[in-house]
Design a protein that fits this description.
Largest sheet: none
Number of strands: 0
Structural class: mainly alpha
Shape: elongated
Radius of gyration: 14 Å
Length: 59
């Protein structure tokens, strides 16, 4: 499993944490689950915009 460290604005962090809690409750791993979902959706959108084959990116 990979690990990515990022810096985001305080406002975005607060919103993300709130939405992750509302979506997944107080379960352990909610932040990772929400971040993985967000990154996956971003990747899919970019793949479509670049008219690429998803298999080229997701091995």
């Amino acid at each position: 499993m990979g690990c990515i460290t990022i810096c985001i604005s305080d406002e975005l962090e607060i919103a993300f944490r709130r939405l992750a809690r509302l979506s997944y409750g107080e379960k352990q791993g909610k932040m990772s689950r929400a971040a993985e979902e967000a990154l996956y959706e971003w990747c899919k959108k970019k793949i479509e915009e670049m008219d690429m084959d998803e298999k080229e990116i997701f091995d």
